[in-house]
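hey
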């Protein structure tokens, strides 16, 4: 099977990591995979993701190569529009994976006006695809209500993350060594970890407020974003800045090394498509406290991770304390579910099954 994966860039964003992991699985199973990307940002070459398969920049020359593929799989808005505009010239099955709740995400990043314009446009664009993949049942319900999209063309494939990790990390960064020293010198210290692009949607401010009443707790936030400065200012104003480590962007390997230090992971989001960081935390057997949104509750049950009510800081504090005291039993159950459902291998297997199903289907646009 020949598969072209089309992405906006090679930068380390969640959807691009998923595309990379799917490509890796397909290569291992002897399929012909090439990644086509749109942007080349020379000043960011050092943070580009590395793929095992060939990666080619989209151009007039490489565009015509796309005629030879059985599957053309786009991720994110601009690749979706690209296939909408030029897919007529290409014979392969057109597939997209939607990684977010479009209107909510666009509103958060570009404002209500842009969301009102581009959300219907994005759905119209994807109505022309042979199959639209979403990441969970909540997303399928959300998009099935759209005027443009046929429910029969929407398929679910859960994300997965790798469970492979080195036996030992060495992270030479000063912050990492400082946290190691803190934990060695005071065994009562607990570390709350969190990762993500720093936007209002992620709800990190709730952790800052909770930290005021959690005197022996420190907070590590991995990620950059437009709200990082205001979050630092909030920590200063609330008197907890000395117990906060705002690390900004951290490369993938170093990010994983911090999971060794987390006593629990807090996922405080107001909305999520499919939170890979939640799966990463569970794969490291880190106890999790997550906001009680439907996406989180679909992935794991209350017997597997703890939930808190959004914007209820007292409830967040209570769940953090309970999880620190007796979270191991939940963590073991969550890890078992992860192994059964949310590994990279399981995700790749499900994508491959879907590709085969689409190609074997005698009539386009019908599964």
């Amino acid at each position: 099977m020949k598969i072209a994966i089309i992405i906006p860039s090679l930068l380390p964003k969640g959807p691009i990591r998923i595309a990379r992991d799917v490509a890796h699985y397909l290569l291992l199973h002897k399929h012909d995979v090439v990644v086509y990307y749109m942007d080349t940002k020379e000043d960011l070459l050092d943070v580009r993701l590395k793929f095992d398969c060939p990666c080619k920049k989209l151009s007039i020359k490489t565009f015509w190569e796309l005629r030879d593929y059985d599957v053309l799989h786009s991720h994110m808005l601009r690749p979706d529009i690209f296939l909408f505009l030029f897919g007529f010239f290409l014979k392969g099955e057109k597939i997209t994976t939607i990684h977010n709740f479009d209107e909510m995400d666009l509103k958060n990043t570009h404002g209500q006006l842009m969301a009102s314009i581009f959300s219907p446009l994005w759905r119209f664009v994807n109505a022309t695809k042979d199959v639209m993949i979403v990441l969970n049942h909540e997303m399928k319900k959300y998009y099935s209500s759209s005027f443009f999209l046929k429910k029969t063309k929407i398929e679910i494939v859960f994300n997965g993350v790798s469970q492979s990790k080195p036996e030992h990390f060495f992270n030479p960064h000063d912050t990492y060594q400082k946290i190691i020293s803190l934990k060695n010198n005071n065994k009562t210290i607990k570390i709350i970890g969190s990762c993500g692009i720093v936007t209002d949607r992620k709800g990190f401010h709730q952790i800052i407020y909770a930290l005021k009443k959690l005197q022996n707790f420190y907070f590590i936030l991995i990620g950059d974003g437009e709200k990082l400065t205001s979050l630092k200012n909030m920590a200063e104003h609330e008197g907890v800045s000395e117990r906060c480590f705002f690390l900004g962007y951290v490369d993938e390997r170093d990010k994983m090394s911090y999971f060794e230090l987390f006593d629990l992971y807090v996922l405080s989001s107001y909305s999520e498509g499919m939170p890979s960081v939640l799966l990463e935390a569970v794969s490291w057997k880190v106890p999790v406290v997550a906001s009680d949104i439907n996406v989180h509750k679909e992935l794991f049950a209350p017997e597997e991770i703890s939930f808190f009510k959004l914007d209820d800081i007292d409830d967040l504090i209570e769940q953090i304390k309970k999880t620190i005291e007796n979270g191991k039993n939940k963590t073991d159950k969550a890890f078992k579910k992860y192994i059964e459902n949310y590994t990279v291998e399981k995700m790749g297997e499900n994508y491959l099954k879907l590709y085969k199903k689409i190609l074997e289907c005698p009539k386009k646009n019908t599964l």
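The mean pLDDT is 91. The longest helix spans residues 344-360.
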